[in-house]
């Protein structure tokens, strides 16, 4: 049988893994048997007085040659058998063309021709199958993804037994019977692994990988295997899950495991499980998140620097009230007799103003502190009101009024309060800057909150400035892109990073494009379906 040569496969290409090892002498022996059989048929056909088509037996010789010759060789064997048939006819009957012998000769030649056609077709099908197997094995071995070829037939039977016992909620059953999961792990038979799997696990060879599947399992791996059992039980055709395994040396590796299952009616004897090493990707993502967090912190501190007037006002106002109430308290105490009730009221007002000042300082500390995001259920409107309060004095100094148009009873979202306030403050400050050169109309910033659906909230910050240059719109959220000479172009980029990290979306549009008059609007869409994206 013809198989791809080493040159056809390319240098370094692995041979088919399931190919039988070469057995010296076997092809030579089969050739000798085929030649001897052809000679015996020729001898019997020539000398036998029996009136039968003995030459039909040459079909056996042709079938024996299928695995010994290529296509050309097989046709030569068939031609040889046909020539022997005709030679035997002329030796036995000469030029006497009697009906009986001539008919038997034609039958034999027809049998040889038909057998040759079938043999050639079978040989071609075998070659195609061999080439397909070789291509599969080449992909299997050279793929950059670690691949396990496993036999899940025992697990398939175990899950079928659970159905027959009336088990419907597989997750509850597995949670109550963890030993069943361990038993299923033991049922897995590893048929083969590729070189990438050997490298991933840091093993010396395939034998070390296939020796014990459990030795590479971590608690996360058991959890992912349990999810795979649920997918098989529920009849799903594919499965993917982020998990972890440990190498031969005990090193933990983050992975993305996936598998494709045959239809439930077929056997699970050959299931391919692919494992992608995501350790370096996860490290890079963590480093990126840390860098974004640091950048967001710097942006918050920079923003606070722009709000010095508002901060001073928010702190000085309760401090002045404390002093005023303290002086009034002293006057009430200096009376004869002292007015203790009035003095108590003054002290109570001082305590209240002190707490107010403390709350302002705490909000400023929260904004300036560098910490990990705290994804918690959040009152969106309360967070917006606090953010607007911090900017209010700065806005007044610039002749800008802030209007809050907040819809009551918004869907509850999980979000980091400080990060949401950072976004709102940044957008309000941008709106103030957009109206610096406006004259002849009120400078007004409107902050809206709306329930877009039972599971989504939209926050909009609208100004009445000059609008956004359409040419700048595509780059508006790019890092270091700014339309202000003194700007550094990080505010909107950080806003987008925060919103997208929570699974939301942010965009901008000119109000004139929607018949809304002057200025521009920035919109943030957050949904409960994507909440807590970090």
From TrEMBL:
Domain Histidine kinase residues, every copy: 310-530
Gene3D superfamilies, A to Z: 1.10.287.130, Histidine kinase-like ATPase, C-terminal domain (3.30.565.10), PAS domain (3.30.450.20)
Presence of keyword Phosphoprotein: yes
Gene Ontology molecular-function annotations: ATP binding; phosphorelay sensor kinase activity
The protein's enzyme class: transferase
UniProt keyword list: ATP-binding, Kinase, Membrane, Nucleotide-binding, Phosphoprotein, Transferase, Transmembrane, Transmembrane helix, Two-component regulatory system
Transmembrane segments: 32-61, 73-95
InterPro entries, per the entry: HATPase_C_sf, HATPase_dom, His_kinase_dom, HisK_dim/P_dom, HisK_dim/P_sf, PAS, PAS-like_dom_sf, Sig_transdc_His_kin-like_C
Protein name: histidine kinase
Organism from which the protein derives: Hypericibacter adhaerens
């Amino acid at each position: 049988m013809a198989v791809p040569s080493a040159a056809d496969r390319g240098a370094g290409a692995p041979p088919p893994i399931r190919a039988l090892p070469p057995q010296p002498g076997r092809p030579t022996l089969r050739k000798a048997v085929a030649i001897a059989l052809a000679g015996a048929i020729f001898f019997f056909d020539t000398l036998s007085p029996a009136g039968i088509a003995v030459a039909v037996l040459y079909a056996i010789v042709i079938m024996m040659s299928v695995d010994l010759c290529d296509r050309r060789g097989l046709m030569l064997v068939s031609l040889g058998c046909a020539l022997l048939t005709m030679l035997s006819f002329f030796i036995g009957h000469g030029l006497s063309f009697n009906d009986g012998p001539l008919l038997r000769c034609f039958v034999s030649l027809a049998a040889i021709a038909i057998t040759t056609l079938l043999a050639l077709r079978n040989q071609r099908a075998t070659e195609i199958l061999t080439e397909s197997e070789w291509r599969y094995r080449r992909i299997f071995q050279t793929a950059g993804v670690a691949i396990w070829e496993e036999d899940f037939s025992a697990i398939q039977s175990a899950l079928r037994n659970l159905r027959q016992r009336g088990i419907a909620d597989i997750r509850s059953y597995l949670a109550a019977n963890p030993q069943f999961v361990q038993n299923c792990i033991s049922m897995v038979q590893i048929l083969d692994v590729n070189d990438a799997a050997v490298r991933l696990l840091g093993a010396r060879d395939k034998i070390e990988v296939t020796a014990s599947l459990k030795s590479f399992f971590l608690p996360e791996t058991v959890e992912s295997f349990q999810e795979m059992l649920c997918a098989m039980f529920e009849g799903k055709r594919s499965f993917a899950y982020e998990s972890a395994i440990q190498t031969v040396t005990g090193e933990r590796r983050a992975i993305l495991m996936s598998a494709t299952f045959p239809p439930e009616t077929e056997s699970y004897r050959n299931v391919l499980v692919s494992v992608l090493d995501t350790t370096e990707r996860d490290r890079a993502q963590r480093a990126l998140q840390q860098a974004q967090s640091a950048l967001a912190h710097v942006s918050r501190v920079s923003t606070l620097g722009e709000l010095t007037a508002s901060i001073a006002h928010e702190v000085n106002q309760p401090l002045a009230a404390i002093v005023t109430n303290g002086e009034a308290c002293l006057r009430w105490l200096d009376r004869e007799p002292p007015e203790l009730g009035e003095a108590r009221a003054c002290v109570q007002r001082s305590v209240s103003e002190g707490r107010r000042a403390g709350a302002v300082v705490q909000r400023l500390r929260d904004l300036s502190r560098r910490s990990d995001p705290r994804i918690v259920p959040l009152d969106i409107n309360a967070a917006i009101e606090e953010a607007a309060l911090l900017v209010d004095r700065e806005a007044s100094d610039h002749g800008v009024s802030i209007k809050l148009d907040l819809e009551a009873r918004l869907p509850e979202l999980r979000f980091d309060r400080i990060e949401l306030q950072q976004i709102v403050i940044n957008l309000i400050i941008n709106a103030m800057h957009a109206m610096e050169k406006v004259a002849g109309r009120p400078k007004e910033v409107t902050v809206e909150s709306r329930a877009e659906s039972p599971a989504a909230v939209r926050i909009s910050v609208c100004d009445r400035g000059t609008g956004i240059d359409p040419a700048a719109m595509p780059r508006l959220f790019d890092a270091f892109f700014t339309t202000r000479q003194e700007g550094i172009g990080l505010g909107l980029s950080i806003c987008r990073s925060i919103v997208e990290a929570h699974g939301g979306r942010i965009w901008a549009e000119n109000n004139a494009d929607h018949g809304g008059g002057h200025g521009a609007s920035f919109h943030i869409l957050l949904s409960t379906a994507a909440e807590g994206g970090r």
